[in-house]
Amino acid sequence: MPAPILWNTKIVAVEIEGTYGTDATPDGADAILTVEGSITPMEGNDVSRDLELPYMSADPTIPAELHAKVNFKIELQGSGTAGTAPGWGKLLRMCACAETIVADTSVTYNPVSGAHESGTLYFYVGATLHKLTGARGNAKFSLTAQGIPYIEFEITGLFVDPAEATRPTPDLSAFLKPSLATSANTPTFTINSTAFVLRQAMLDLGNQVENRFLIGSESVLITGRQEAFSCTVEAQPLSAFNPYTLAKAQTEVPIVLVHGTAAGKIVTLNVPTAQMQRPQGLENAQNITEWPLRLVPLAASGNDQWTLVLT
User: What is the C-alpha separation between 31 and 132, in angstroms, rounded?
Assistant: First the structure.
């Protein structure tokens, strides 16, 4: 009997494609340091043949619309050098985001509405290689007090027959140790310039990822987006901040969240025009009243609903 395949030895590597659906052959230098990685390697539909037989029997099927999905989290941490893209930057580019680098200064990510990049993702489990080509996906930025900030990815790509392959040696040096979300490490969280005590926050890019399998073209597309921002904060007197009035008036307010304090490790999430949504209840934590708030990032001039700036 062969030795069992150890799950925690998986390797993930990704590279941006020059031509859609053409294997970009990521190697060890393109490895990604993942958390809670998983794969559904052969998604699709089973088309029944609906045969009319002279006896009772199950129908045979034909697999169709084959694709694969990979889910994992990345620790949200900069590269350590201002103006140098982080190791996870390619993944955001595969989620309909642009990457703008200012040498020695900053790396900025923002949503784009066209010319979406695609990537090739290699997922090794033991010596078995699962390939996703033409891959695109969705991402969520999440932060919880006393926890590690993450970017959660769901990547969808075209199916390629799995095969045995030589495992690369992953270079994970681009992935630095993260810092916990604490008062010292997360110095700024404001809504409409009002500072809040924050329990958790999440920005969901809300990408609409569609598998489009037609004759002459098979692809994974991002055809729309519905961003959503949510957070849980300590409630304040309404004289200081009134979410009910803001929601009723459909008021658009800015959100700023800054995590990190050292150069090259500062991550700033800006949502300049977020519409306050109806508050849905109150929460009790340690006998302290908290607000779960929902806001919708809106575009002002287009593709400016949010930015993630690394400095």
Answer: 15
Closest by CA position to 38, among listed 4, 72, 5: 72
The per-residue DSSP string of 274-310 comes to EEEPPP---EEETTEEEEEEEEEE--SSSS-S-EEEE
- The answer for residues whose C-beta is within 8 angstroms of residue 272's C-beta and 6 or more apart is 254, 300, 304, 305, 306
Res 1: pLDDT: 84
Q: DSSP for 150-200, please give it.
A: EEEEEEEEEE---EE-PPP----TT-PPP----TTT--EEEETTEE--EEE
The maximal CA–CA distance of the chain, rounded, in angstroms, is 78
pLDDT band of 218, cuts 50, 70, 90 = very high
Sketch the domain layout of the chain as residue ranges: 7-43+64-310
Q: CA torsion angle for 16, 20, 23, 28 (degrees, to 10)?
A: 10
List the beta bridge partners of residue 222.
Answer: 209
- What is the residue whose two structure tokens read 């729309």? 224
Alpha-carbon span 29 to 60, nearest angstrom: 44
pTM (2 decimals)? 0.94
